[in-house]
Amino acid sequence: xxxxxxxxLRNKGAVxxxxxxxxxxxxxxxxxxxxxxxxxxxxxxGLKGQTRVxxxxxxxxxxxxxxxxxxLDKEMIDYFLTNIFKNNLxxxxxxxxxxxxxxxxxxxxxxxPNKYICISPLVLLNSLDEETxxxxxxxxxxxxxxxxxxxxxxxxxxxxxxxxxxxxxxxYQFQVIPDMQYIEKLKxxxxxxxxxxxxxxxxxxxxxxxxxxxxxxxxxxxxxxxHDFIFNCGFGEATMEGYGMLDIANxxxxxxxxxxxxxxxxxxxxxxxxxxxxxxxxx
Length: 283
Description:
Elements: E1 2-9, E2 15-16, H1 21-31, E3 43-44, E4 51-54, E5 57-60, E6 64-70, H2 74-84, E7 87-92, E8 95-105, E9 114-118, E10 122-123, H3 143-160, H4 165-170, E11 174-178, H5 180-188, E12 194-200, E13 207-214, E14 218-222, H6 224-233, E15 246-248, E16 257-259, E17 269-274
Parallel strand pairs: 7-17
Antiparallel strand pairs: 1-6, 1-8, 2-5, 3-6, 4-5, 7-8, 8-16, 9-14, 9-15, 10-13, 11-14, 12-13
């Protein structure tokens, strides 16, 4: 399930870093404190809204901003959404926002192959658990690129507890085919499709690791259950840090959206702060 959380922006012109996934990751971990559900994991987008670029980062000027939060664990999503709406205001970096509405993004029809775009960078290797350097550049059209994503996906699906060993073995059909025409166009325009990004922990503003992320359209041959898993839980490594969120190419996700209601059982609280260096709630 994918939920779109719509916030009202209280201080137009406020700034977030160009890549602010670590700030959102801290907020989400705080909002999920106490949840004792499954190990399926989750994925999330950057904060979407009308922005202007400056040296400081992204200035948000729209009246509303949106965060997409996704998981196969509906109970986790409801827990997360309920905790968001317990708060009148949240601070996300310099932005002050108030939760306003929730929409459910209905699942699209998955073709085979299915063409995706990257909403957030796609990470192949995480230096925390891989012998190969997470900053190595791997050619998108190489077998190695596809193999790393296959191994990562099968590992995550197996450890989700949702699939039997027989099902995992049946998911052998898997091939990532990058849109090389798009990549070549970026090269000619001296634009990058692969960059180094920093991973952070909860207790410091200093990066704990660096990874290479890729952003380009690609087609994927895979079992329908694999498509469903990566669409809801992210693709590649560091998905719970906000990497690897996908969407369907040439399709407007808003067309799939319907209102979504969560039972809110407790009164609203004060403020929640989401700074990468603040490990606990602040009110």
